[in-house]
Amino acid sequence: MRLNRRNFLKLGMISGSLLSLNSLSRSEKLKGEIKIGDFSPETGKKRKAIPSACWQCVSRDGIICYVEDCRLVKIEGNPKLPRTNGKLCSRGQAGINQVYNPDRLIYPLKRVGKRGEGMWKRISWEKAIDELTSKLKEVLDSGHPEEIMLHYGRMKASSSKIIKDHFFTALGTGTIGNHTSICEGGKWSAQELVWGKHYDVNDATHTNMILNFGCNVFEAHTSHIPFAQRVIKAVVDRGVKMVTFDVRLSNTAAKSTEWMPIKSGTDGAVALAMCNVIMNKGLYDREFINTWTNVTSSQLKKHLKPYTPKWAEGISGVPAEKIKSLALEFARAKPGTTISYRGAVAHYNGNENERAIKMLDAICGYIDVKGGTCKAVGPSWKNSFKKPKTKTKKLKILDGFPGQAAYPTHHMSHYVLKMIKEGSHGRPKIYISYCYNPAYVNGECKENIDILKDEKLIPYLVVVDVAVSETADLADLILPDATYLERWDWEDMVSYDQIPEFYIRQPAVPPLGQSRDFKDVCCQIAKRLGLDLGFSSAEEFVRDACENTPGVKEAGGFEYMKKHGAWVDPKAKPLYRSFAKEIKPEDLKGTIVDEATGVVWKGKEGEDYTSTKDAYKKYVGQKIGNKVFKGFHPDKVNKSGKFEIYSNLLKKKGFSPMPTYIPIPEHQKMKQNELVLTTFKVAVQTHSRTQNCKWLTEIYHDNPAWINPKVAAKKGIKDGDRIKIKSDVGEITTRAKLTEGIIPGVIAISHHLGHWAYGEYASGEKTAEHVCEPDCDFKWWKEKGVHPNWIIPNSPDPINGQQRWMDTVVTVRKA
Amino acid sequence: MNMLKKKKTDRQQSSQKAFQRSDVYGLLSLIYSQEPDESFIEKLNSGNSRLFFIKEGMWDEKFWTQSVKKICENLAVEYTRLFIGPKDHISPFESLYNFKKGDIRQIWGTATVEVKRIIESAGLSFRKDYGGIPDHISIELEFMQKLVKKEAELWNEQKNGSLLFKTIELEKKFIDEHLKVWIPGFCQKVIEAARYDFYRNVAELTGDFIVTEKEEVESLLSFF
Ligand code: SF4
Known about the structure:
The complex is a heterodimer of chains A (about 800) and B (about 220).
Chain A: H1 5-19, H2 22-27, E1 30-31, E2 47-53, E3 62-68, E4 71-77, H3 90-93, H4 95-100, E5 109-111, E6 120-122, H5 125-141, E7 148-152, H6 157-171, E8 176-177, H7 185-194, E9 200-202, E10 209-213, H8 224-237, E11 241-246, H9 251-255, E12 258-261, H10 267-280, H11 286-292, H12 297-304, H13 309-316, H14 320-333, E13 337-340, H15 342-345, H16 350-363, E14 373-375, H17 416-422, E15 430-434, H18 438-441, H19 445-453, E16 460-465, E17 477-480, E18 489-491, E19 502-505, H20 518-528, H21 538-548, H22 552-555, H23 557-564, E20 566-567, E21 592-593, E22 599-601, E23 619-624, E24 627-629, H24 648-652, H25 665-668, E25 675-680, H26 694-699, E26 705-707, H27 709-714, E27 722-727, E28 730-738, E29 746-750, H28 759-763, E30 808-814
Parallel strand pairs in A: 7-8, 7-15, 10-11, 10-13, 11-12, 15-16, 16-17, 25-29, 26-28
Antiparallel strand pairs in A: 2-3, 3-4, 5-6, 5-17, 9-14, 18-19, 19-20, 21-22, 22-23, 23-24, 25-30, 27-28, 27-30
Helix pairs in contact in A: 5-20, 6-20, 7-16, 10-12, 10-13, 10-14, 10-16, 13-14, 17-19
Chain B: H1 8-33, H2 38-44, H3 47-55, H4 61-64, H5 68-84, H6 110-121, E1 125-126, H7 137-155, H8 161-193, H9 197-221
The structure holds iron/sulfur cluster.
C-alpha cells in the first residue's frame, strides 16, 4: 500500500477506532502532559561514580562504575580496595558489554514449540512467576521437595545465602548442584584432606621463591588480578625467582624466571622428588613437621625414599639435576611458596598431586607464614535474618555413582546429567539452572544436550541467565537475570594481604528492560508460596548486613558502603599462623578429647571423632602436648586439627595414606601416535560467560590447537592446516598452530570458544535467517573457534571427583 | 514572528489531520509495543478496518480465517521471533542503527540518551513500571503520538501560534534526527524477515508513514 490523501484519511480513522480499545492504555509507557517550552535539552554531562564489585570472573574485584545519562560508560578498579589497588583486567572493563549486549535477554520467555525448537513467546513477569510458582507448588504438595533442583555455576556471598541458604532451604530441597568439580573442586577436596578449609593464598608480596605447578596465574586464577599483580611485583620489583611447570608455554610460564616443560599429569612426581631431596639434605622444618603434622621426619624420609630425582625425571621429563637444585633453592628461600592449579589437579591423580605439593610447602615450614602458603582470610558478614529451619531432603545425584569417588566434597557436577539419565537415584521434576550452562561447560556436550532435551528425563527446565546460553536454548522457561552491574550483594572474596576486606556490589544502573535479579525473584516466589524469608529483596538483605556487621556498622553502615563500596579495618594486622593460636580453657567447656587424633570437639562421651557423621562440624581445637590449639580447622571431612600428611581417611578408602604418585591409567596404554589433549585459559575470556562481550571476543575469537612442530611433521601437518582431533567420545575439527611452546606429547586447546549460542558474538555465525542484528555488521572476524569439550569425557578423579580435563587421549590427523 | 498564516477552516482541517496522524502513530506504537490481544484482533478483523485492509491488498484471507486465539498465538510467537529473540532478531532499539563515529554500538547507546532527553524535556516521563529502554520503536512512536496530539489541540487555539510552531519544529527535529534515520531501514529488515503478512504490512506502512510525515511537517512549517 502506498499512503495517499485518500487512504490516509481512512487509516487515520481506523487507527483511532482501534486505539479506543483498552489495549493501548495498558501499553502506554509515557506519562504526563506535553509541555513545549524553550526546547533546550541540557548538554552538560555529569558522571556519577558508583563503587561496586566485578563479577566477570570469580575473583570479584572492587570496581568503580561511571554512569553518564543513566548509562554505564566506564568501569575502573576501586583504588580504595587493597585487593584491587585500582587495577582490573580487560574482562572487568568489558563488563559494559554484558549490560548492553544487543543479544541481552530482557524479557521472560516461554517455550511454545518442541523443546529446543526455538519457538518462544514473551511473557510477563507476573505470568512467569505464576507458572514457576504453581510448578513448585505441585512438587511441594507431592511431599518431594527434593525433586526441585537448583544447579548453579557461580553463586557467591550474599547471592548464595539468599538463593541457597534461605530460599531453597525454605522450599525444603537440598538437591543443589554447583559447578566446582569442573573448575577446581579437586584442589579444595585434596586440601580438606590435608589442612582443612580452602583456599590457599600464596603470600607473593613477602615470598622469596615461587614454584608454580600448572597454574596460569597471569591469565587465570580464582583471585586473578589481586594475585597476579602481587606475583608480578615480586618477580619484577624484587627479583623473586618463579619457576613454572607446565606442558605449555603459557604467558605465565613466559613471564616466569624459568619455564620447566613437564609431561602431563606428572607434577606430583616432581613434588615428591623435591621432598625427597629436602628431607635427605636435612633442610626441612623439624619443628613444623614434629609439632603440626601427623608424621615424623623419619616416617617421611622412609616414605619418600623411592621418589628420587632420577625416578621423577623418568616420569616427568624434568631433569633430575634441575629437580635437585630447585628443591635445595626452595628449601633455602625461607620463605617460599608453591602455586598449583588445574594443570596439576585436573587429572586422575590430581588429588595426590595437590597433596604432594602441599607436603612440599609443609616440610619447608612454609605453611601459613609470612611469604608462604597461607590459610585464606576473608570478611565475616553478619545478617540478622535466620536461616530457615526446614529440614531438607535431597536426591543422591550430586556426587556421582556410589563409590565412584571417595571424597567428592565439592560434588561431581559433571555427572549430574548422567545420574539423571540413569535414573536410579531419582530425577528432579524441576531443574533450575542459574548462571550455569551445563550443555556447554561439561565434557561430552552431545550427551548433555540429549539429556537436557528429553522431557521424560527433565520434565521442566528453567534457565536463569543474562544471555541465551546453549542450555537456555533447551529450556521451557527463560528468566532474564540482572547482570552483576545491576544488582546488590555483599562480597567476601579472600584477601591477598591476609586482612579481611568488606565490600559490596550495588547497581550502577537499574536492570535493563525487564531483566530482574534472581534473588529478588526468589523473594517474590517465596511470598507467593507463603514462605517468610524475613526480607523481601536483595537490597534489604545487603542493607541489613551492613547495619549488623561489626566494623562496617560503626563505619557508617549501608550509607557508608554505598558511598565507598568497601571497608577495611585500618588497624587490622595481617593474619598468619592462625593454627598456632591457643584456645582459652574457658572456651573448652563441653568438649571431649578424641584420644586417637587429639581432636578436642563437642562430641558425646564415648563417641569416636573420625567415624561419627559430620563430627568435623563440632571441632573445637587440637590437643598438642597439654595445650589445645586452633590447629588446622577441618571442613567437610573428619580430619584432625593437624596438617595431615598421613591421611587415615584415605587409608580407610583403600588409597595410600601418604601422598604418592599414581600413574594415569590411559596414559600408560597410549600408542605411539596418540597425544594427550589439555585445555587452558587466556586472560581475556572466562570459560563460558564472557564471549558475548564484543570487546573481548574481538580480541580473542580463535583458538587453534597448539602442537609441537616435531609431532606435526610426523603427521604431515603444517602450521595453519585443518586437523581432526578424535577421542573415544567424539571428533572435532580445528586448525593447527605449530609451536615449540608445547611439549611433544600434548595437544592443547583453550576452552573458551566454539559457542553455538550465547549471542552472535559468541556463536560467531549469522544463521540463514539472519537479516537482523545490525551490530554484527561491524564484526570483522569470521572465526568463532572450537569447543574442545565435545570430545572430552566426563570422568572423575577417583578420590575427589574432579573432572579430568587434562587426561583425554586423542589421535590427530590432517583434515 | 512565527505567525500563523492559515484561515480558521484550514486550521480546523489541520487539527483534524493532526489528530489522525497522532492516531496512526498510536496504532503503530501499540503494535510494536506488545503482541496483539484477542479484542484487538477481533476489531482489526471486522467492519471498516477489515474492508480497508482488504481494499489496500493487505489481507491474507487464509491467515485471518483462523480462530482468533490461533491468530494471537501465531502473532505472539512471531513478535517474539522478530523483535525479542532469543536468537536472531531485529532489535527494535534506535541506538543499534543510529550512531556516529566513535559511538559504541550497543543497547542504551548515544541515541538512547538523546531520545530520553528529548522526551523528558518535552514534559513527559517514563512510567515507573516500564523500566524499559527509551529508544524502543514503540516509545518513539508513542512520543510522536502525544506530540502530534498536542499539535492538533494547538491548531484550535489561535493565540498559541508560537507554541504550535515550536511543537511542529520539535516533531521535525525528532523525525529528522531519529525516526527518519533508522526506522525505514529497520522496517526493511522486518519486511524481509517477517513470516506473516501482518508484520510485513505493518513494517511497510511504518516505513511509508515516516516518509510522508517528514513531508508533512515540512509543509506545515512553511505556513509560518
Ligand atoms: S580478574 Fe578481571 S574479571 Fe576477574 S574480578 Fe578482577 S577485573 Fe573482574
